[in-house]
Amino acid sequence: MAAAEALGAARYFTRWYKADVKGRPCEDFCVLQHSNRICVITLAEAHPLLQPGKTITSINYQISPNCSRLQNKVSGKSKRGAQFLTELAPLCRIASSDGEEYTIYSFIRGRLIEVNENILSNPALLQEKPSTEGYIAVVLPKFEESKSVTQGLLTPEEYKEVLLKRQNSSSGS
């Protein structure tokens, strides 16, 4: 379901960004919001994992000993059984060949509809097609929160300004 929807990302989704999640420089995320409220969580283009020379070695949806996002079982129209996520809920941990580990957060309140199991067997999808087949998870905000879900997120234009400021501050030093 969501994978097929994610494929039409550029056409049917509105793109929003969250920069420096949890105060970590450049750890930026992107949410693709569909008009039906569904939000697809992806890495933003400036995320360290998407930079040249990075190789993803593992992706782990096991958040804690008692919580695995892979155990999320959703059924029915009301999405019964879906794990509820807060803005700071971790979705997965991704390790790279340089020894760095990145925690990917939901940053959207709502029900976890699905995680992308395809990236477990093919982590390169995350880097090659981050906005389509390389998405991380699909979250459905509560109906009453669906309009406010983008508060605090950046438009593509605002995100470009953030990237320009970073570039200018790094080239100025």
What does this molecule look like?
- This protein has one domain (about 1-170): RNA polymerase II/Efflux pump adaptor protein, barrel-sandwich hybrid domain (OB fold (Dihydrolipoamide Acetyltransferase, E2P)).
- Helix content is about 20%, strand content about 30%.
- The protein is built from five helices and eleven strands.
- It has helices at about 1-5, 10, 120, 125-130, 155-170, and strands at about 15-20, 30-35, 40-45, 55-60, 60-65, 65-70, 85, 90-95, 100-105, 110-115, 135-140.
- Residues about 1-5 have low confidence and may be disordered.
Helical stretch tally: 5
CATH H-level superfamily title: RNA polymerase II/Efflux pump adaptor protein, barrel-sandwich hybrid domain
**Low-confidence residue ranges:** 1-7
Q: Largest beta sheet, briefly?
A: 6 strands, antiparallel
CATH class: Mainly Beta
Cα shape: globular
Radius of gyration equals 16 Å
Please indicate the percent range of residues in DSSP E strands (runs of 2 or more).
25-35%
**Number of structural domains:** 1
Helix content: 10-25%
Which strand order do you get reading across the main beta sheet? 1-2-3-11-10-7
User: CATH architecture, please?
Assistant: Beta Barrel
Task: State the order of secondary-structure elements, H for helix, E for strand.
Answer: HHEEEEEEEEEEHHEH
Distance between the termini: 47 Å
Mean pLDDT, as a whole number? Answer: 85
The tally of beta strands, per DSSP, is 11
What class, by secondary structure content?
A: alpha+beta
CATH topology: OB fold (Dihydrolipoamide Acetyltransferase, E2P)
